[in-house]
Amino acid sequence: MDEYNDLPQEQPGREAPPAGEEKAARRPGSSLYEWLQLVMGCVLAAVVLFNCFARLTRVDGHSMDPTLQDGEMMLIWSLGYEPEQGDIVVLNKTAQDTHPQLQGKAIVKRVIAVGGQTVDIDYTTGTVYVDGDPLDEPYINGPMYLPGDPMMWNTHWEVPEGSIFVMGDNRNGSTDSRHELLGTVDCDYVLGKAVLALWPPAKFGLM
Asked: Going by CATH, does the domain composed of 56-206 fall within 2.10.109.10?
C-alpha cells in the first residue's frame, strides 16, 4: 500500500494563493468612507467643544485697549469656570441691561473684584482699591480720570456674593461696573474667560 495515498494531491494547473490573499479584499471607496467618518467625527467634536465648553468671541470696540484691540478674535473657556480677580471675561448682558451703545455686542472686561469684596476709586490719583489695597495695574491704557458721565461718578461699591465688578483696561473709554446701568454683574451673565488670542496672527498665544 502506497504510504502517500492519504496525502492531499495538488490539482494540476492550480497554484497556491499569494501570501496575504486570504485577507478580505478592501471594498471600493472604503478609504473615502473612512476619511468621511474622520472628518464628521472632527466636526462633531468641534460642535460639542464650541457649544458646551468654549466659544469664539470677537472684540468689538476699544474699551480693552491696549490689551485687546477692536476686531481681535479670542477663545473663551466656560466649562467649570469661576471668575477670579484679574481675569478677562465675556458677558452676555445686552443693551436692554446696560447701554444703547452696546446693542447686540458681547461685553469684554477685566474682573476687578469678586463677591464679598469692596471697590474704591480715587480719581485724583487714578487708583483703584480692592478691600483697601491699591491695585497694581500695568495693563491700563494711561491714567484714569473722572468720567464725563455723572452716572459713573460713584467711587465706592460693595460687590454682592455671586457677582463681580468689571472694568475695561481703557478706563477713559469704557462703560463698565462704574456705570449705574451695568453695575456689579451677576456671575450667571459670565460666558467664560478669555484664554487664547487667535487673530491677528501677531497676537496669537495664551492670554
From this structure: yes
